Amino acid sequence: MVIKILNTILTVVAGIGVALVVYWILNKLAELLPGRWGDRLKPYLYILPAVAAIALYVVYPGIQTIVYSFANAQSTQFVGLQNYSKLLTSAGFQQTLITTLVWIIVAPLAAVLIGLLVATVVDKLKPGNEKAAKTIIFFPMAISAVGAGTVWRLVYAYAPAGQPQVGIQNAVVTALGFDPVAWLSVRTFYLNTLLLIVMFLWLQVGFSMVLLSSAIKGVPTETVEAGRVDGASERQIFRRIVFPQIMPTVVTVYVTVLIGVMKLFDVVYVMTNGNFNTNVLAVEFFNQLFTNFNNGAAAAIVVLLMLAVIPVMIFQVRQFRLEEATR
Amino acid sequence: MTSTVQPAGTVATEPTPTKRARKPSTGEAAPAHWSIKAAAIIICFFWIVPALGSVITSFRNEIDANNSGWWTVLNPANWGGFTLSNYRDAIVNADLGQAFINSMAIALPATFIPLLIASFAAYAFTFMQFPGRNIMFLVIVSLLVVPNFVAMVPLLQLYGRLGIGGTFPSVWLFHIGFGMSLAIYLLRNYMATLPREIMESASIDGASHYQTFYRLILPMSTPVLAAFAIFQFLWVWNDLLVALVFLGPGENAPLTVAVKNNLIGQQGQGWNVVAAGGIITMIVPIIVFLAMQRYFVRGLTAGSVKG
Fold first, then answer.
1. Sign of CA dihedral B227, B229, B232, B237
2. Above 50 in pLDDT, residue B24?
3. Which residues pair with B82 in a beta bridge?
4. B14, CA 20 to 30 Å: which among A81, B8, B203, B296?
5. What is the pLDDT of residues A38-83, one digit of tens each?
6. Which residues in chain B touch residue A160, judged by CB atoms under 8 angstroms apart?
């Protein structure tokens, strides 16, 4: 154990030290070059390690994954589109896609709406109370889905009727005179997935609240005052004056949560392991890789996911260009 | 720039520009309406109750925790059964002590090494002119949202061939690779807001790029360096998937994997020990959160699109 601690410290110090020395040497080398060549080369030397890291860890494996998605389970032989056709025609995978779709439809929208609600409510509190409320709602952002899983498994805990309930949700249900429910295995209307979304929102709403709240504060007071003078109700002021002005932030929050949901893994893996129709793409990827040892199918799932992410990537680049234009 | 809009992935580095003055009119000076207060209390209640349940359960003895709801301790008559032994059980029997060290050993290098590499790159992208600069930067921006499982199958095979599967360096390198585009993006956006005159006067004084970077730009970028460091540290600390894929259970498993496999995944583990294990995973992130809330919000809001 002591060795591990020492190794950690050593790695941090050595890693940073070595990096500094490497850059210093690269810099000196560039300065040794005759005339303007040094200056021309220097920028490339500065970005070289970073670009190499991205190329080696993101670009190269990304392309390799596309290749593997057309190969067999051990990546030894090409099988054409077989991985895709097998996946898309299997009932289990279709179910996984539908559940992922439920997440995609419900979670980002709910995150925006609840975030908006919470932001408008806390915005009207006294500054001290506002800060306290924001801290309470934001803190789950810091913790892992595994940590949150220990919290929410207890909330949804189930014991058969007649036994004492340790889960608060079943305690409420039985106190109202109903039978306790094994929440995480109820497939009807995707109730279990919806309950996982509740847990996800507990983790995520803090994020949308913070962004939306700062957008609401950025709305010029004069526009709101003008509405008030003209006799608009609070609801009209929000719908007609505030909302249009914070629309760009709403879109940003929506897209961000959307990306998070598309690649969501840990919440589902920790809570249900994908059982009872709660399976999503990322969990299926993991199961193909480590339960079925099927590299081909795992790679094909990743490619499907990448296809879904491409529009978001384009959005991201467009946002960046817009932002650069206004700089 | 008057909007407070943060396009996806932008760090909120500048203070909110048109922060509305508090209580600008008589209408808002009045205390919040009771319905607003009630709504706020209900919302906070929903956020606190689940966490409170875990905290209380982590201090109850096994018989109490498995046979009565945690809310029964609201009655002082039930205060007899509190214990710290759940934490001992989690740390010793479920190996969380070892896992805690592992989490540190994974997260610290994976946080600080990319920071420096990205700083150099961001400096070049901001202050140096070179052919291909803009297109390369755009590529980096677009790679921001690539989900990290894209790389897992090929890298697993590569690691297997190199014989470094299951080791810390295998995860460090992975996190460095996948943290890089976000780091460059954040740092470059921040550096672009630094006053150009400083750069110019430095070069007139004969300072080399290396000196300017090291002496001027790096110290001036402290807020964004902190924001990225916090985000990356928590990202790695809280990560489950990468650790499961490259380390798996065993002597190098971090907290997330250990809690999932040794506590949540084990039949018959009492709620009390599971809750204690969960709290142990949360201690470090909560301390970071409370101590560095300002940078923390920046880092998390900026990094939430990371793949």
1. negative
2. no
3. B60
4. B203
5. 778 888 988 999 999 999 999 999 999 999 999 999 889 999 999 9
6. none
B207 DSSP assignment: -
The whole-number average pLDDT for the span B85-95 is: 93
pLDDT at residue B118, rounded to an integer:
94
Query: Which pTM was predicted?
Result: 0.90
CA angle A177, A181, A183 (to 5 degrees): 140
Distance, in angstroms, between A251 CA and closest chain B CA?
9
Q: What is the mean pLDDT of residues A297-314?
A: 90
With CA atoms as reference, the chain B residue closest to A326 would be B1
Quote the mean pLDDT of chain B: 85
Distance of CA B291 to the CA centre of its chain: 13
H/E element, B152? helix B152-162
Question: Which H or E run contains A244?
Answer: helix A243-262
Residue B121 tokens read as 């790159």
Question: Is B187 in contact with B225 (CB distance < 8 Å)?
Answer: yes
Query: Helices A2-32 and B168-191: crossing angle, nearest 10°?
Result: 50
Nearest CA in chain A to B56: A151
**Which contacts qualify for B279-282: CB closer than 8 Å, 24 or more apart?**
B279/A147, B279/A150, B279/B54, B279/B55, B279/B58, B279/B87, B280/B87, B280/B90, B280/B91, B280/B96, B280/B100, B280/B255, B281/A143, B281/A144, B281/A146, B281/A147, B281/A150, B281/B255, B281/B256, B282/A142, B282/A143, B282/A144, B282/A147
Is there a contact between B256 and A144 if contact means CB atoms under 8 Å apart? yes
The number of angstroms, rounded, from the C-alpha of A93 to the middle of its chain's C-alpha atoms is 22
Closest among B50, B264, B297 to A273, alpha carbons compared: B264
Instruction: Give mean pLDDT, residues B64-88.
Output: 89
